[in-house]
Specification:
Layout: H1 7-40, H2 42-46, H3 68-88, H4 96-103, E1 126-128, E2 136-138, H5 140-147, H6 151-179
Antiparallel strand pairs: 1-2
Helix pairs in contact: 1-3, 1-5, 3-6, 5-6
Amino acid sequence: RLPFEFTGFADNVALYVSELQELAETMREETEKTNKLIDEGTYAAAINPYKSISVPAKKEPVPHFNFAPLKNALDRLQKAAAQFDAAADGTTDVSSRINNLLYTSERLLTRDAGLDGRSWYKHHIYAPGFYTGYGVKTIPGVREAIEEREYDKVASQIAIAASVLNTMAARIEDLSERIGGD
C-alpha cells in the first residue's frame, strides 16, 4: 500500500479554516477601529497640513461570514481521515485499485474552473497568492475574497472549498471501506 496518511492533511486544513475565521474577525475589528477614528476626527486632527496626506476613506464594514459549510466539510474530512488511518494501520497487501485511488486523491482538491479570476490555478487548498507571486495562500478562494474585501464572493468561495473537502472526504471514506474499515 502506498504510504498515505490523511490526518495530517485534515489537521492542516483545520488550522487554515481557523486562520480564515481569525482573519475575518481581525479585519472586522481593525475596520471598526479605523472607521471610528475617522468619524471622531482623529485622523483629521493629526494630519500635517504641509504634507500631501489626506484623511483615509472609511472602509466597508466586514460582515459576519457563515463558515458552517466549511466547518462541516472539515469535520467530515477529519472523521474520514481518522477512520482511514485506523483501517490502514498495518495493512500492506492491497489492490492496485486502492493504490490508484490513493495517489489520485490529491486531484480531488482541484476544480476544472480554477480559482476566481485565475482559471489556470486549479487547486483550492493551496495556490500562489494573487499579489504574492509564488507565495502560497491556503484556501485561496476564501482567503483572497476576505483580504480583498470582495465580501459578495466569500459565501460562494466557502461553498466551493466545502465541496472540494467533501469530495476528498468521500474518497477517503471509500478507501476505508475498501481496506476493511468500519
